[in-house]
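Protein data:
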Amino acid sequence: MHSVECEDVWMIYRSLFSEKVALKEVNLKIPRNKIYGILGPNGAGKTTLISLMATLLRQTRGRIEVLGYDTISEFREIRKRINIASGNPNLIWSLTVYENLRYYSLLYGINDRKAVEELIKEFELEEFRDVEFNKLSTGSKQKLILARAFVNNPELVFLDEPTKGLDPPVARRLREKIRFLQKDLGITIVLTTHYMSEAEMLCDRITFINRGKIVAEGTKEELKRLLKMRDKITIEIEGIVPDLRLEGVFAVERDGNQLSFYVDSAEARLWEIAKEVARFGRIKNISVKEVDLEDVFNELAK
């Protein structure tokens, strides 16, 4: 059984005079005990999809099952077993760290003070235990929001841009904590993010959404193979190079006097590309690197 199954899911927002299709023909299976990434440009439908899975919205058409339960007819069973956290601070500002976790534990019917203290320790919030939420730093607020997502010992956690707006060192530590908790607890985490380095570090499988539709799904390596892109050759040249059609080149990007060629094999294509480019000016620099998730994202977001 999968953690989440979506079958022909549509989400249409309707008003009196217009309608907007946020998701269409979404078919998706999210495996258990993995970190699963949902990526896409702004407005692609990522947050809408997570909101449907978390039973915060009802789809217009189609079927969604979470942990074997239907999101419409059995949403109460789902809500006992999941939790959600976002990159936007949304806890009770006047309550302390301890009081917030205690409050949300009680909402789930869990009256366990020791478990609250353990969460505070697990997320390294001991020194802020009695500090009000509105007086915490952005990083500590985000730790607390993440800690709250574990108050009910969930089987499935939705994280909507969990490191949004954090300084790089704080974001890195939070990512390490997410990976550790997933492995330690053996749970499923569904993650949206705008940071490709975050997805590269955390996600076992990834779905790309663009304009409300799934355009690709797989592991990082499968996605790269799907686009037939393996290496990126970047050449800086003094001169103007026209559009070139070369064997093994699947995409070309221009940035001033710099051209980036996405190829199936740099070893096989470098000499021919450099020779052709050199016809139009002096080559100043050549660099080669393996294609990363950022390159895949840019191609799929077109």
Remarks:
- The chain has two domains: 33-50+74-218, 228-300.
- The chain is about 35% helix and 30% strand.
